[in-house]
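To illustrate the input format used throughout this study, we show a single complete record. The first block contains the structure-token representation of the backbone; no residue identities are included at this stage. The design step must infer an amino acid for every position from geometry alone.
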């Protein structure tokens, strides 16, 4: 079993940047496809980005493409989400998740392990 802990959330003005981190313990991160999801109040959890075990390929939701970058450092057991040009609609709780799947997945139910989430609030 792997434990995931996110950090780096906070309050930022529109147009600003944040970098989220997700540190894994218990198992080697390189065993998993990793993803970031987010959930806004009153909405369902939605896919943000995913990255394969070796660091490529990566996939993004259309709403964040060109603004967010997912990356990983398997030696540090850490996955990152660099978020630039933030908008108010990016507000929500951001979760990292780990999947056993053989290929990338955009579906929350295909991820076995989840962190507790980190709040991102973008003020307009």
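Output of the design step:
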């Amino acid at each position: 079993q792997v434990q995931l802990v996110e950090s780096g959330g906070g309050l930022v003005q529109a147009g600003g940047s944040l970098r989220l981190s997700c540190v894994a313990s218990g198992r080697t991160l390189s065993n998993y496809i990793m993803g970031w999801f987010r959930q806004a109040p009153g909405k369902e959890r939605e896919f943000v980005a995913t990255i394969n075990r070796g660091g490529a390929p990566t996939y993004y939701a259309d709403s964040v493409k060109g603004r967010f970058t997912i990356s990983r450092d398997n030696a540090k057991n850490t996955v990152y989400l660099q978020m630039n040009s933030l908008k108010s609609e990016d507000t929500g709780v951001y979760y990292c998740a780990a999947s056993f799947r053989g290929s990338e997945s955009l579906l929350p139910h295909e991820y076995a392990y989840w962190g507790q989430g980190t709040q991102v609030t973008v003020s307009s």
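Structural context for interpreting the output: DSSP finds no helices and eleven strands in the chain. The CA atoms of residues 17 and 84 lie 4 Å apart.
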